Amino acid sequence: MNSLDTIILEVADPAAARDFYARAFGPDLPLDFRASDAPSDGFRGFHISLTMAQPADVDGLVGTALAAGATEIKPVARSLWGYGGVLRTPDGSIWKVVSSSKRNKGPAGRAIESVVLLIGADDVAASKQFYVDRGFGVARSFGRKYVEFERGSGTVTLGLLSRKGLAKDAGVPADGSGSHRVVLVGGSAAATDPDGFAWEPAAVSEPRTPTTNR
Hints:
The structure is a single chain. The protein has four helices and 15 strands. The chain is α/β, with parallel strands linked by helices. An eight-stranded mixed beta sheet has the order 5-6-7-4-8-11-10-9. The longest helix has 14 residues, at 55-68.
């Protein structure tokens, strides 16, 4: 079964980005950084979620991210599904910090339970088929609305939501153009999905020309 092992963010200054993420979220996220000045305007078509055990953990992580230089898109709040908020990091990526729990169960901590990358698909069914053909197992699927793939041996859970739905979830307009500014690493072969997200093999991660298909 295929899996998502690493997320490469394409940024103006990899050293500055590495320092920010270490201070904001800790040094152990499955992230790498690559220099890029590819144009990217508006919504980039994805966001990354960090799942925490309880609201106090969410508050703590959001607090350090804001102190490190992130900006708030949606303030942390309770909702039907749990507790969380949305941030934009200095490189322009959108991050959610969330917990399915609405109550604290103990002292605040910084342990991240899971990392989830959601892609905003123009056609969820077509993108789902691409990933199934590529060897991803489906964990949950709700028609043309939402798909979550099995994580397998990877460190990141991959999911699909409609582009409009994902933008609404993030609290930003759905319009965007230019590079996604992200590369997904996993599997044994390079590929580009129907929404223009590029994959590189897990064993090889060489510089590439940023994808501009959005």
